[in-house]
Write a structure and sequence with these properties.
Strand content: 25-35%
CATH architecture: 2-Layer Sandwich
Radius of gyration: 17 Å
Helix content: 25-40%
CATH class: Alpha Beta
Largest sheet: 4 strands, antiparallel
Strand order of the largest sheet: 2-5-1-6
Order of helices and strands: EHHEEEEHE
Number of strands: 6
Distance between the termini: 16 Å
Number of domains: 1
CATH topology: Alpha-Beta Plaits
Structural class: alpha+beta
Length: 129
């Protein structure tokens, strides 16, 4: 099964502050290992919402709103597509990723990672029934 790991943005990310180099090195090392063993399929970061737009559809009308967007806790900062046998296994991958943040940034660091199964023709969750 494939899962999307969704890394939530925080205030420093939205402010455009550069990420901690030690954290990025640790994440890159983990990513290389996971790419080699086939569990990490794709990863990427997103620019702050100040460089973004949203398109709303309401009452048959399309409306475009430029960022930044105020609800930081609802914004996505990055993602990874992972291969795992189950949600339980995907959670273990997510715990390992978030543990790197705690190890590098310290116990006061706060972050959030959402894990969701992908739905598509090649995914069991995407099959009818």
């Amino acid at each position: 099964m494939r899962f999307m790991m969704i890394v939530k943005a925080n205030k420093s990310y939205e402010a455009g502050e550069p990420p901690n180099p030690a954290l990025m090195a640790a994440v890159a090392k983990l990513g290389e290992e996971q790419m080699r063993n086939g569990t990490l399929l794709m990863t990427g970061g997103l620019a702050p919402s100040s460089r973004s737009a949203r398109i709303y559809l309401s009452g048959g009308t399309l409306d475009v709103k430029d960022g930044p967007f105020s609800e930081t806790k609802e914004l996505v900062g990055g993602f990874a597509i992972m291969q795992a046998e189950s949600l339980t296994e995907a959670i273990e991958h997510g715990r390992r990723f978030m543990s790197l943040h705690r190890e590098v940034m310290g116990p006061s660091y706060e972050g959030q990672l959402e894990i969701r199964p992908l739905v598509g023709p090649d995914d069991p969750c995407g099959q009818p029934g």
